[in-house]
Design brief:
mainly beta, 128 residues
């Protein structure tokens, strides 16, 4: 059974950085499409970054809202995925979720409903 557990959230000042971690068990992270979503209060959940499986092309994609600031990566040895977030702003305040799935097409064509396996979420608050 594929399970995901996020960690690394917290309170950070504007302009700061955080790295979120997603521990993957039950499947090798390299062979999964992995995505990070976030949901701010009163807003819909949005996919912000994703990365294709190694057996696909391994490419990553970012939404316009985080492009150039957030980076997704994975470590096969630790079976982990990461979200490095830099230059954070108050608009980045949200609950962040990792999601993973074996999918056929590029991860950027899939939405929330296509990912069956989710972590529990971790709160990120950007405030001075």
């Amino acid at each position: 059974q594929l399970t995901l557990v996020e960690s690394g959230g917290g309170l950070v000042q504007p302009g700061g950085s955080l790295r979120l971690s997603c521990a993957v068990t039950g499947y090798t992270v390299d062979y999964l499409h992995v995505a990070w979503f976030r949901q701010a209060p009163g807003k819909e959940r949005e996919r912000i970054v994703c990365i294709n499986s190694v057996s696909g092309d391994g490419r990553s994609y970012s939404s316009d809202s985080v492009k150039g600031r957030f980076t997704i990566s994975r470590d096969r040895g630790k079976n982990m995925a990461y979200l490095q977030m830099n230059n954070l702003t108050p608009d980045d305040t949200a609950v962040y979720y990792c999601a993973a799935e074996r999918l056929a097409l590029s991860c950027n064509v899939y939405g929330e409903r296509d990912f069956v396996s989710w972590g529990q979420g971790t709160q990120v608050t950007v405030s001075s």
